[in-house]
Design brief:
With 101 residues, the protein is an alpha+beta fold. It is 35% helix and 30% strand. The protein has a single domain, classed as Alpha-Beta Plaits (2-Layer Sandwich), CATH 3.30.70. The protein is globular, with a radius of gyration of 13 Å.
């Protein structure tokens, strides 16, 4: 079973790219090294230029919680200058996946 954590971020005008660039340069490696990490997706809304969504995938609810209590707090702090407030976070169980590249 795979668990997904979905964080929806509302960015200040024209700050979305800068915010995600900062994350890639500062915390992405910490996320990748977190035990139980399975992968992630970053979605940029085509309907709202200031909306970005990060989906992280975890082996267990416990791994997701370790991330939430550790690296995600760092992520939230680092994004603070770029966003309008805290993200909306939802938790899911992955029913199925298929990615073709």
């Amino acid at each position: 079973m795979v668990f997904a954590r979905v964080a929806s971020w509302k960015f200040k005008p024209d700050q979305r790219k800068r915010g995600f660039d900062m994350l890639e340069n500062s915390v992405a490696e910490l996320v990748r090294r977190t035990g139980g990490f399975r992968g992630s997706l970053i979605l940029l809304s085509r309907d709202d230029a200031n909306l970005g969504i990060i989906i992280t995938l975890w082996n267990s609810e416990e791994s997701e919680k370790v991330y939430a209590d550790g690296v995600f707090r760092i992520t939230t702090q680092n994004l603070e200058p770029f966003v309008t407030g805290p993200p909306k976070v939802t938790h899911h169980t992955v029913y199925s996946t298929e990615l073709n590249q």
